[in-house]
Amino acid sequence: MSHIISDNRSNLIGSAWMVAAMGAFAIEDVFIKAAAKTLPVGQILILFGMGGALVFAALARRNGEGLRAPEILSPAMAIRAAFEILGRLFFVLAVTLTPLSSATVILQATPLVVVAGAALLFGETVGWRRWAAILIGLIGVLIIINPGGDSFSALSILAVLGMLGLSGRDLASRAAPASLGTAVLGFYGFISVIIAGAAFSVWDNSSFVVPNSAASLVLITAVFAGVIAYSALMKAMRTGDVSAVTPFRYSRLLFGIGFGVLVFGEALTGRVLLGSGLIVLSGLFIMWRSNKSRSTK
């Protein structure tokens, strides 16, 4: 009985960490979107990446983790960095150029793509029910972006590209050396953000803008929200059962929609609500089927 109570308590704590992480990620998005009103996107990425990298470098040093471990040069880490650059760049562009609510909803398709990628790349068994759920979830994404419709905006493709990039990062993280700690992965994740910002600045040919005190405060807040979110996410995944904690990832959808409506005055459409419903239900069904498959083995 005491073992069951302990497991339930761990699951509750892990779920709370996950909700906190998703809330912090949503706050990060809000402040990045706010910073884009006065600063170029490339510069935002560079400054945001520098701030996060410094924080995680300090955490790695405190934990006695080396930032120059040989495992950093592994092919998996190189692939992870490439997808991190693409995912971060396109999702930040989506957050700054499109409604926060719709960008956040599209991002929730990441677990669906990760499951599909795990089946195709790592040979994980995915039955026809889960493939059907993946297809339904992706239909939800199509309903939101509405290609071919009067409300279609090519900018909505940015969120899809960002989602695909972050999905690739998550898949590559599974193959990353287990010896690399959270702080080290976080440090190189934010280094990738700097590279993304520098590359976009060259392509955009934007001039450096000296941030005023308000813009600096917004960026500092975004950095700390991002660090807290990343740390809380790692804490969540290491506390309690993954199957019990992971579904709370979808709380980010509620935070993103809420901030989009309340802070930026975005209007929710029937398409966004229908598409988000299909994405979330598909994701929850896939998790349920995965847990059921494991329990029967």
Structure commentary:
- The protein has 297 residues and is mainly alpha-helical.
- The chain has one domain (2-295).
- 77% of the residues lie in helices and 0% in strands.
- The protein has twelve helices and no strands.
- It has helices at 2-35, 41-62, 75-97, 100-107, 110-122, 128-145, 156-175, 182-204, 213-237, 242-245, 251-264, 270-295.
- Helix 2 (41-62) runs antiparallel to helix 8 (182-204) and helix 3 runs antiparallel to helix 7 (156-175).
- The radius of gyration is 19 Å and the shape is globular.
- It starts with a helix and ends with a helix.
- The relative contact order is 0.23.
- The mean pLDDT is 84.
Radius of gyration: 19 Å
Give the number of domains: 1
Low-confidence stretches: none
Q: What share of residues is helical?
A: over 70%
The ordered string of helix (H) and strand (E) elements is HHHHHHHHHHHH
Strand content: under 5%
Q: What structural class do you assign from the helix and strand content? A: mainly alpha
Shape category? globular
Number of strands: 0
With helices defined by DSSP (H or I, 4 residues minimum), what is the helix count?
12
Mean pLDDT: 84
Describe the biggest sheet? none
End-to-end C-alpha gap: 24 Å
